[in-house]
């Protein structure tokens, strides 16, 4: 199945030129681990895709917009033809027109002798994925609008238009309505590209995080999902973490953890720094608590006096809090996990300034 990505000479940040090294795309039905909003979105996407309706995928960075675009193409009747991705944010304005629409022999000095087919024409019969559409230069928006309404392109220097038939999928993390209000995005183009809008949920809002984590670990290690490959405290931390970088960040964390773990099991110490430093108590400060289901009454993190970095007791305190949160404050289970008796754990709580949950009006910890 042909796949093309833009590798513009001056594009410094088109990360997708690396796709050929790690193209682990998923089929459309594998994009959800059972999250109801995702299941609904997938069903709507499947119904839309072969109707000649342009699809607009919205979502925060790293929520899987490109994966969804690719999966929709693979599901569609156009799957035998090309899926051509263009990152509108990384096209230098001076090259944009020729890259997108192509040019004829001798169109300008420095042009390839035989001319060049533009990306739109390369996607003929298949799918054109315009990523970061909100960053498309205004002048180019006007040209694109014409292509979409006339269903033809005029390569630079060409005497006649060339008909094209593409399924258009656009994506952006930006609020296009705001860009329109600011005069940075054409309203008529918006209505042309937003035939069907699919809004991907942020990872912190998804109810299928546990299954996603297990599936990503299984993919990384090869094999079936298996909860034994991750310690409960490490899993709890991943479930409670707000994932500002969404699936991209989760994937990177899992790759890292699988690379550094010992004895085939991910422990808290195998998590990268941002998760090591994260304790559920941070939720009170990040404002993410609304997306996280509390296991104990919600709380003010100040209830647990925090220790500064460099404090030798800090790591131990984090480890103890994780065990307590992971066991839902079951002291016997937490002490077993920490390898100490119940009396020692109570002593530790006093030594590390961790008030027992029952002694607080509003204890601080939450898990997903
Ligand atoms: N369903 C999935 N399963 C596993 N990993 C995924 C999935 N979706 C996305 N990823 C991971 O997240 C990364 C980002 O995905 P993708 O490029 O589709 O997101 P995006 O929303 O288009 O990002 P951006 O807004 O930055 O362009 C992928 O490279 C992959 O590592």
TrEMBL record:
Pfam families assigned to the protein according to its UniProt record, in alphabetical order: AAA_lid_14, HTH_8, Sigma54_activat
Keyword presence, Nucleotide-binding: yes
Domain Sigma-54 factor interaction: 31-259
Keywords: ATP-binding, Nucleotide-binding, Transcription, Transcription regulation
Keyword Electron transport: no
Record-linked InterPro entries: AAA+_ATPase, AAA_lid_NorR, Homeodomain-like_sf, HTH_Fis, P-loop_NTPase, Sigma_54_int, Sigma_54_int_dom_ATP-bd_1, Sigma_54_int_dom_ATP-bd_2
The protein's name in its UniProt record: Sigma-54-dependent Fis family transcriptional regulator
Source organism: Herbaspirillum chlorophenolicum
